[in-house]
Amino acid sequence: MSVFTTVAIDEITPFLHRYSLGQLVELKGISAGVTNTNYFVTTTHGKYVLTLFETLRADELPFYVNLMVHLAQHGIAVAAPIANLQHQYIDELNGKPTLLVPCLPGSVAESPTVEQCAQVGEMLAQMHLAAASYPAKMPNPRGPHWWTTIAPTLYSLMNPQDADLLAAEVALQTQHQHDTLPTGVIHADLFRDNALMNGEHVGGFIDFYYACTDVLLYDLAITLNDWCVLEDGEIDDERALAMLKAYQSVRPLNPAEIQAWPTLLRAAALRFWVSRLLDFYQPAAGEMTFAKDPSHFQRVISRHAQRRNFWI
Amino acid sequence: MSVFTTVAIDEITPFLHRYSLGQLVELKGISAGVTNTNYFVTTTHGKYVLTLFETLRADELPFYVNLMVHLAQHGIAVAAPIANLQHQYIDELNGKPTLLVPCLPGSVAESPTVEQCAQVGEMLAQMHLAAASYPAKMPNPRGPHWWTTIAPTLYSLMNPQDADLLAAEVALQTQHQHDTLPTGVIHADLFRDNALMNGEHVGGFIDFYYACTDVLLYDLAITLNDWCVLEDGEIDDERALAMLKAYQSVRPLNPAEIQAWPTLLRAAALRFWVSRLLDFYQPAAGEMTFAKDPSHFQRVISRHAQRRNFWI
């Protein structure tokens, strides 16, 4: 499904000669992922993941790749990019920019445990601290400016009641500025399928290609909205409490963050409601298969709107 | 034995707060090593090795530490130094410069197999290639200038016959210049106890504190002299052949290297004969216990001198 660019044995072999990773043992396409082509590359030294970037250009990659390098250097559970013999992380294969990283231990936790949610919250906080010394910055391409621009293009496509709710939600967020909250590098897309769990522990956070500079607590809101959610959009109190407590054991929230938390939870849901609506009503060519149910995040927002206890 | 500087729980805990590695689970001194203090530090994130440098100063460490960072970035099996929240690899504890690295898989192979020797040869060649893009340089502090200076201080302490042999060996090396051979960063001390073997594979090369810029093939000579040696100083043909073949599968030797190889094998043995003689006759305070038998490398040289087939 997600091998958009095919790589043959006689193409990977000379490619691997540009690295210090031994001889090819096996090459195998990975079916997960909707944007890039990924292969498992097993060599005499170990098992690696090769990504061929299908949309990002080589000159757009350094922010993300150097961030992964930086976080790995701090012991954060991420795949550390591997440099080629020219000491470049980004190489090229079959006309696409590439990245090679070690294969991380673990698998996606579709129904995470309370302890897994705690470990993810703790690692996320550690990631926020470790990223404080990362020098590069990247505006959030999916922030308030984006959804405020995109949402009105969707109203006429939606049923009027949902469109009113979306417009109201955008208006609500417009009333809140979060300029005074701690900012830094955030993952911005830390859903369950972007983490490999090795038992209770975080094997690795993956897919940093939405990472950007934004409000740190917004990252926790995105994460909690997915990891702690029930099928009906309600949040599981036990998992949410565990995640928040573990996050705060590393980076305690300040009073302004505690005050902003309920709004940020709704902002985090709004961002994905809008992007899923966009995918649903205006799918990019060939992506139709992957469109996810937009109404899920509408329900998440609705539950947050009714909530009185936000686990802090 | 090798915990020279004691670290207590209430000292490591605030130290760990300067990193992104989770909470302390266990702290345990490591008995191996003769120069530095090493501890296993287990946290909620994983198992690490903490080194407190007992002789090297913080300002002497960057060449070695950045080299480890560089090699790890290339996928070479070395422990990747972990940066603290100030993005510094070198920190300080109890007045000593420190380094934290992940615990590598594997253990020391005292009686390496043929396949292990091949894997070490292959990884060493990969290391030489990967280090070519490492920008820093470091003269070899234990090169010809060193042994030519030190050897004469030992003659009067040795029995006259051995002293004559040593003088002859130093004279022999003086007749050979290796200025035209490929140079680069070498480990320079890749004995069996400086590699962790994970089954047949290299779990990691360790102890890079003799690394320097020198003739690449000299590094292979040092390595082969230890990994492929029998108790009587003879070299095991099968292991030596496997190591050389694997090394050359990655970095083929040029004609000048092939010609220099027998002399380099003797130079590599001479360097350790002299340093062991020095440790034996002029031990540094407190190191007496660790003095190794100098005559071992005298026998290695003697065997090399008689050899007609050097496995290339």
UniProtKB/TrEMBL annotation, chains A, B:
Q: Which SUPFAM superfamilies match?
A: Protein kinase-like (PK-like) (SSF56112)
- Pfam families the UniProt entry points to: APH
Q: What region holds the Aminoglycoside phosphotransferase domain? A: 27-253
Pathway per its UniProt entry is: Amino-acid biosynthesis; L-threonine biosynthesis; L-threonine from L-aspartate: step 4/5
What does the UniProt keyword field contain? Answer: Amino-acid biosynthesis, ATP-binding, Kinase, Nucleotide-binding, Threonine biosynthesis, Transferase
Q: Which reaction(s) are listed as its catalytic activity?
A: L-homoserine + ATP = O-phospho-L-homoserine + ADP + H(+)
Q: Which InterPro entries match?
A: Aminoglycoside_PTrfase, Homoserine_kinase_II, Kinase-like_dom_sf, Pseudomonas-type_ThrB
Please list the GO biological process terms of this entry: threonine biosynthetic process
One term of GO molecular function = ATP binding
Q: Which CDD domains match?
A: HomoserineK_II
Q: What is its EC number?
A: 2.7.1.39
Q: Which HAMAP family match?
A: Homoser_kinase_2
Q: Which family does it belong to?
A: Belongs to the pseudomonas-type ThrB family.
Q: Could you tell me which NCBIfam families the record lists for this protein?
A: PRK05231.1 (NF003558), thrB_alt (TIGR00938)
Spell out the protein name for this chain: Homoserine kinase
Organism (species): Deefgea piscis
